[in-house]
C-alpha cells in the first residue's frame, strides 16, 4: 500500500509506529549529505551528447526520482526503443560515503506518508533524476523489438540527455507520446502470451478517509499508460538479461511458480471472491483475463502475487539458466537504479559488455554479495507493506466489531484456518476445527485494533 488519503491525520501515529518498529531511516548522515552535495556538482565528461533525441518520462504525477526516459523510432519492421536510465554510478564512488549508506539501505522504502530514499534527494530527486529542467547524464540502452515482440540489446552508451516532458499516468494523452508507444507495448504483450508468461500487475491498495470519518480500504484503478510503460521496462530488462547470460556474467531476478498447495489456496480464494475459475483452466491462462479495475479481481491478483515462492536475486553460474517463472524468461533488473541498489551494478555490467569491455572487478564482486543484501531489503519492504495493510484493515473495521461476515477457508496450518472474507479484500486467520480448504464459513469480527495493527475473528457457523 503506497497511498493514504487521511486529511484529518488520524493515522499519523500508527505510521510513526511502523517507521520506528522497522527502523526506517528518518534522514541521511551528515557525511553522506555532504558527499552527495559535492557529487551533484559533477559535470559529465564521459558522455556523448544525445540532447537532440526527444526523450520523455512517464511516471506518477508526484514522482521526482525519475529513473527512466524513453524515445521510440521505427527501424524497418522493428521498433528501436532508446531507454535512458539515470547514470547513478557517475555520482556514486565505490566505497565512498554515499555507496556505503546505499549498501546499508538496499532499496527505497515507501510508506503512505512518504519514503526513505536509497540516495539523498539532491541526487535522487535532483542531479541524477531525469527531470525535464536541464541536461542529465544517463545510460542509453538501445533495444530492438521485432514484430513478434522478441527483444535484443542493440547497444549501450553513456550520454547526456534532455527530457522534453515529465508526463503523468493520469493525464498523459496519446499525442504526448511517441507514435509507436502503443505498438511497442502490444508487441511485448504478444511475446509474453507466446512464451506462456503469467506476470500480473495488481493495482495498489489505498486507505482513504470517508466523509463520515470512517476509513475504507480499496484499490486504485490501474491505468493503461502504466501497463504500456511497464512493457518498455520489461523489454529492456529481458534484453539485458539475455546479453548478460550470453557473456557469462550478471545478476538475475528469479522466482519459482506457485506450487500445488499455493494453487489450491488460490482456487479457494477465487471461490471466496465469487470468481468463476473453471477447473480445467490453468492459472496462467485464467489470470490473463483478470480486470485490475474490478475490486474482487484486483484482490485475486494480489493473492496471485503473494502465492509464489518469492522472488530473489541470483548471480551468474556456469550451466545454470536463471529463471523467473511469472516472466517465463531469464530476467534482470536494471531500470530503477535510483530506487534499487542492485540495478546500479547490473547497469555497469551491461554498459561494459555492450562496449566490448571487461566487467569491473568491483561489479563482479558485488554480484556475489548483493543477493543477501537485497533479500534483507526486500524482506523489510515486504514487512512494512504488510504492517501498513494490517493497520488499514484494522482502521477500516474498527467500527464494525460484532458484525458477521461470510468467508472461505483458503488454507490450513498449525496456526488455524486462513480465510478470505467474501465481501472485503481481507485475509485473516480464525481458530476453526473440522474445516477443509474451500469450506464456506461465517465469522464474527471480535477485535479491530489499529494501534496494534490487529484484527481477529471468531467462527460462528
Could you describe the 3D structure shown?
This protein is α+β, with helices and mostly antiparallel strands and 461 residues long. The protein has one domain. The chain is 34% helix and 24% strand. It has helices at 12-21, 30-39, 97-105, 121-127, 181-195, 224-246, 260-272, 283-286, 295-307, 341-354, 361-397; strands at residues 3-5, 48-49, 57-59, 68-75, 78-86, 109-111, 114-116, 136-145, 151-161, 166-168, 205-209, 215-219, 251-254, 312-315, 404-413, 416-421, 427-430, 440-449, 454-459. Strand 8 and strand 9 (151-161) form a beta hairpin.
Write out key terms for the chains shown:
single chain, 461 residues, alpha+beta, five-stranded mixed beta sheet, five-stranded antiparallel beta sheet, 11 helices, 19 strands
**Overall pLDDT confidence:** 91
Radius of gyration, in Å, reads 23 Å
Span between termini:
32 Å
Q: How many beta-strand elements?
A: 19
Approximate shape = globular
Percent helix, as a range, is 25-40%
| Biggest sheet features | 5 strands, mixed
Quick rundown:
This protein has 461 residues and is α+β, with helices and mostly antiparallel strands. The protein is built from 11 helices and 19 strands. It has one domain (3-256, 310-397).
Amino acid at each position: 500500500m503506497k497511498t493514504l488519503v487521511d486529511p484529518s491525520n488520524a493515522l499519523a501515529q500508527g505510521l510513526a509506529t511502523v517507521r520506528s518498529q522497522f527502523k526506517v531511516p528518518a534522514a541521511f548522515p551528515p557525511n553522506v549529505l555532504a558527499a552527495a552535495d559535492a557529487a551533484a556538482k559533477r559535470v559529465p565528461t564521459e558522455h556523448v551528447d544525445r540532447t537532440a533525441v526527444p526523450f520523455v518520462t512517464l511516471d506518477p504525477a508526484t514522482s521526482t526520482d525519475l529513473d527512466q526516459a524513453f524515445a521510440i523510432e521505427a527501424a524497418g519492421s522493428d521498433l528501436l526503443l532508446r531507454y535512458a536510465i539515470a547514470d547513478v554510478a557517475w555520482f556514486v564512488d565505490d566505497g565512498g560515503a554515499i555507496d556505503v549508506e546505499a549498501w546499508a539501505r538496499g532499496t527505497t522504502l515507501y510508506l503512505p506518508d512518504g519514503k526513505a530514499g536509497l540516495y539523498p534527494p539532491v541526487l535522487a530527486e535532483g542531479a541524477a533524476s531525469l527531470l525535464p529542467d536541464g541536461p542529465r547524464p544517463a545510460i542509453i540502452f538501445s533495444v530492438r523489438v521485432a514484430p513478434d515482440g522478441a527483444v535484443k540489446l542493440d547497444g549501450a552508451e553513456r550520454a547526456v540527455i534532455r527530457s522534453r516532458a515529465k508526463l503523468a499516468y493520469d493525464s498523459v494523452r496519446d499525442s504526448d507520446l511517441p507514435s509507436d508507444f502503443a505498438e511497442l507495448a502490444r508487441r511485448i504483450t504478444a511475446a509474453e502470451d507466446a512464451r506462456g508468461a503469467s506476470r500480473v500487475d495488481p493495482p495498489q491498495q489505498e486507505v482513504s478517509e470517508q466523509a463520515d470519518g470512517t476509513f475504507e480500504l480499496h484499490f486504485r484503478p490501474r491505468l493503461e499508460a502504466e501497463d504500456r510503460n511497464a512493457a518498455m521496462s520489461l523489454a529492456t530488462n529481458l534484453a539485458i538479461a539475455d546479453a548478460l547470460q550470453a557473456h557469462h556474467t550478471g545478476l538475475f531476478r528469479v522466482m519459482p511458480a506457485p506450487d500445488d498447495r499455493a494453487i489450491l489456496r488460490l482456487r479457494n480464494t477465487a471461490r471466496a471472491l465469487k470468481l468463476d475459475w473453471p477447473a480445467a483452466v490453468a492459472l496462467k491462462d485464467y489470470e490473463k483475463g483478470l480486470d485490475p479495475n474490478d475490486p474482487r479481481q484486483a484482490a485475486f491478483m494480489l493473492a496471485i502475487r503473494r502465492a509464489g515462492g518469492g522472488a530473489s536475486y541470483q548471480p551468474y553460474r556456469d550451466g545454470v539458466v536463471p529463471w523467473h517463472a511469472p516472466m517465463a524468461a531469464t530476467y534482470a533488473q536494471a531500470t530503477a537504479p535510483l530506487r534499487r541498489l542492485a540495478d546500479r551494478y547490473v547497469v555497469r555490467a551491461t554498459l561494459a559488455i555492450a562496449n566490448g569491455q571487461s566487467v569491473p572487478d568491483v561489479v563482479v564482486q558485488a554480484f556475489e554479495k548483493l543477493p543477501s543484501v537485497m533479500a534483507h531489503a526486500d524482506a523489510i519492504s515486504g514487512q512494512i507493506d504488510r504492517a501498513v495493510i494490517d493497520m488499514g484493515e484494522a482502521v477500516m473495521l474498527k467500527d464494525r466489531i460484532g458484525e458477521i461476515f461470510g468467508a472461505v477457508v483458503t488454507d490450513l496450518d498449525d496456526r488455524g484456518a486462513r480465510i478470505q472474507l467474501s465481501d472485503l479484500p481481507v485475509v485473516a486467520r480464525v481458530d476453526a476445527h473440522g474445516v477443509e480448504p474451500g469450506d464456506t464459513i461465517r465469522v464474527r469480527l471480535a477485535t479491530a485494533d489499529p494501534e496494534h495493527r490487529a484484527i481477529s475473528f471468531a467462527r460462528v457457523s
